[in-house]
Amino acid sequence: MLKKTISALFAAFIMIIGASAAGTIFPAQRTDVDGVTRYGYLDEEGRTVLSFSYAQAGEFAACGLAAVEDDKWRTAVIDREGHLVVDYTDAPVSVEFSDDAIAYRYADHSVYYTLKGEKIGSYAGAVGFFEDGLLLCKSPASDLYTYVTQDGSAAFAGEFKDAGVFSGGRALVCTTDGQYLAIDTEGQTLYTLESGIEPRYMTIFGEDTIVLSNGMAKALYSLSQSDYLTVFKYSEISEFDDGVAMVREGNRWGMINTSGKLLTEPTYYYLSYMGDGLYAARSADGSASAVDANGNVVYRVSSYVGGFSELRYGLAWHGTADGSLIFFKKNGGYLTSLKNAENPTLLSENVVRVTQDGTLKYINLSTGNTLLEQPKSFDLGSGLTAKTVHYEKFMGYQADGTEHGWNVDFPELSGLSDTKVQKTINDAIRVFFLKGPLVTAEYEALVGSYGASVEGSVLVVWANCISGQGAGAAVWNDSLAFDLRTGEQYQISDLLVSGYLDTVRQLLPEEHEMYLYSFPRMSTKGVTYYYNEYASETRRAYTESYLLTFAELGDAVDTKSACYLALNTPLVKPATTVAGFSDVKTNHWAAEYIRKVAEEKLMQGADGKFRPEEQITQAEVCATIARSLSLETDGENMDGIDENAWYAEEVSAVWAAGLLDGLEADFQPNSMMTRADAAQLFANVLVQKGSTLPNDQTVDETLASFKDAAEIPENRRAAVVLCMQKGLVKGYTDGTFQPERGFTRAEFAKLLTMI
Hints:
By secondary structure, this protein is mainly β. The chain is 14% helix and 37% strand. Among the domains are: 1-124, Lipocalin (Beta Barrel), CATH 2.40.128; 377-567, no CATH class; 580-752, no CATH class. The strands form 13 sheets. Strands 39, 40, 41, 42, 43, 44 and 45 form a 7-stranded mixed sheet that branches. A 4-stranded antiparallel sheet has the order 1-48-47-46. It has a 4-stranded antiparallel sheet with strand order 5-6-7-8, with no helix packed on it. The longest helix is centred in the middle third of the chain and has 17 residues, at 419-435. The radius of gyration is 33 Å and the shape is globular.
């Protein structure tokens, strides 16, 4: 039995970082063609530090740990090397971290561990972490609060209607008869609050300040002085952060400290804490600002278009009217901007996860480099491609302010030689995804992606979505199957004989009723049935899958059916491309050259494409030379080359062979290789094979015919002429050589066949 979490749609259920994350590695997600979203960890250069093997992954907390989840609905805690600190166990509602402990939060209890993974204990109704050696717990049976020690015993006698965690040896409590007290760690009463008023929060701020409410207004009160620090004049006082709280007087906001001193007069129409001592403020003139506790403007824009919500890793952001995002620093300095971007999440001092042009991307803000992005298409094999189409439908806002609606990806097939069949299939796929689950589609949110595979001559496409939000949300993973030769749509009844349900019922686990096994999906191996579990208050919606092989199904399979035969007949597609490269047609001018260098493994493509019209880089040229000459490195890397780069070994091998003589000083692996530099490299190869560079007179006479002969660098002239003598390069019909021009990959493929 495989219990599989469906994508990363409900991340809010799993991991709450109790302290701000630190370090330079961060979680990233990638959805593959199977429709399953997997998580791994990248560094700020985009290198994979921990493989994409997790069903969920949280950010690393300041303590250096993170929570991850596997595909069996189990949660673990790992360190930055991926080592298990707390082994996989039943998934909690959330995982929280403090500076010295880990808490697994379940619906009715919490399990605590040290940062080394040693179990401290399990406590019913636990709130927060141990403070002053005591843990606040709310009894599920009595609904009353008590304080316990690490061994689970009561710290002192007494149960309370309400209570707060200890801070500085004191805590606020409310007795069962409604009396509010401040007590010490022995349970002794330190202060008694007068009747008729009550704490706004069960928290003692600073040395001894609490926020009181008389039902209409709020005020600050000093426990030690038994006196009010302010009168009841504020309609709201927030909790304190770093000794500062926000106060509202009428419809204006200001800031106050724990002694009751007003730091900033209530002048703002809106105020919220961003973190690290900064506040987001909106003024009467419509401007939005980041201000400090004294009202000093750190950063300001004339109008508010989203953002100013949180300061993370010393950065914050806001939107602009043209759909861009601007990122600014804690000190107010401008960092950078991204166009056509939305939904940013800062993951480090330099990296943001963002949706740009409809694609999920991870971008290094300092360099502008895209470290990872969700593929926009998938190669299905047999020359077929599934291009991702995005569909959104706004349905309103939830009570918490989040958008409610559809956010769905579905595939569009290309590559079929029969365009009529292709259109038939694509039309059916589009209708399927835009219709959604039949029962709830009209009023429920729908979020997710798709999976697709070619099974013999059958295209199988399935949804991988969550329908609904919160408790009651359900997995939608229904599927479609098409004959790629005819466009005919197959049902499971086209594959199995009548009465097949009796056989299926015997093969599936009896723990669930048969009608709960829905959405059977066919493949070349058999039929997979799915049991989909609804989301609850304590878990996400998930799926259990059961593959019933054709051997297990036996006589229930109609082996003479068109569907079964199609599943067992490989799709034969007329060859219209070269060497499997979707972007090189058989009629391309360089088709035969590309075929030859691909067969000899001298040049490679990526993602099923050769990219014939792209300029070839210096690293790519070196790689082809190394492969052509079977060069090997002695283990020493060329100076200035990143040892982890894909080209490091091959470039270093060419360098070690002396073939980069004359090129080392200005070698830029990711820059275009110019014609003049390529001539130098080829001349080095030719000389090592026994050729001799031409003399100065021959060089001058040969190059005299070029209009731009003066533009050929002096130290490249002899190399250019030698390559011309060998027929490797020549000038253009307009009488120029164009030494600074590059080669396309197609042009270079031709050149390679001539060496």
